[in-house]
Amino acid sequence: MKILVTGTAGFIGSHVAQLLLARGDEVIGVDNVNDYYDVNLKEARLARLKVIPGFSEARIGLEDRDSLAKLFAQHKPQRVINLAAQAGVRYSLTNPHAYIDANLVGFCNILEACRHNEVEHLVYASSSSVYGANTSMPFSVHDNVDHPVSLYAASKKANELMAHTYSHLFRLPTTGLRFFTVYGPWGRPDMALFMFTKNILAGKPIDVFNFGQHKRDFTYIDDIVEGVVRTLDHVATANPGWVGDRPDPATSNAPYRLYNIGNNQPVELLRFIEVLEGCLGISAEKNFLPIQLGDVPATYADVDALMQDVGYAPKTPIETGIARFVEWYKNYYRQ
Length: 335
What we know:
There is one protein chain. By secondary structure, this protein is an alpha/beta fold. The chain is 41% helix and 15% strand. It is built from 11 helices and 13 strands. It has helices at 11-22, 39-50, 65-75, 91-94, 96-116, 151-170, 192-201, 221-233, 269-280, 304-310, 318-332; strands at residues 2-6, 26-30, 55-58, 79-82, 121-127, 174-179, 182-183, 206-208, 215-216, 219-220, 256-261, 267-268, 286-288. It has a 7-stranded parallel β-sheet, sandwiched between helices. A two-stranded parallel ribbon has the order 7-10. Helix 1 (11-22) packs parallel to helix 2, helix 3 (65-75) runs parallel beside helix 5 and helix 7 packs across helix 9. The longest helix has 21 residues, at 96-116. It is globular, with a radius of gyration of 19 Å. The N and C termini lie far apart (40 Å).
């Protein structure tokens, strides 16, 4: 197929593009390669894609409506995976407008481009952050998520609502994936595993928020990518049993679906750090701190629906995933 993927200079997007290319799809990669974090890392990810036949690159931001419309009209992609976004909970506390521009204006432009170019299926990144103040575990896509605790989370919840509108009005099949703490080789420098590894190797202390009592559904990148591509191949359809007096948030009488994509096995942060220390062969100096504004104490994904519908089966334990990340980090940074 001809597939347009946004965020191909990013962590998840670059891996998704690689898998699509490996199976013979043509990929149009879209990314503005901004400086939210190390541009050299983004360029290195793109360099791996550029040598693979079938990959073409467009350096534009999703906010650039005219350029995005021209790109869609030129390539006429059959399906779209939207992974480009302004990420990060903490960054949203000090740079809120970045989230409005990329996650709301940009996503509207994606929806419009899909609508006007007869795209068969739009798969887009949502986030486990949408669960916000929810405390019932595991988090279920069938639960109400109307209490976000960060603007980042609110922007992702808004994406789900916007997508439903286009599915309802224009019968555009859309599937939202709520990602749960993705980690692995080529990861983001603003994520905990990357920052911990960097500081431990440099002999610096690591900041451990919520006094190490955080629990996260850490999910290895290969498991995530497999789930994304399986979802892309499973075009969203209407739920014939959906009724308005008992509305199911995860489905609709329009071609619309929401799924959690996680490991279904939450791990306490201190255990995560312990495994990392074992892989590095170094004990970390820990700076224990209270929970940060906008953070949630725990995430835990109910992935039953994704397993039933597309055969999603995460299988990478943190011991394996962290070891692979450490190997990549040492090779990439020559340590």
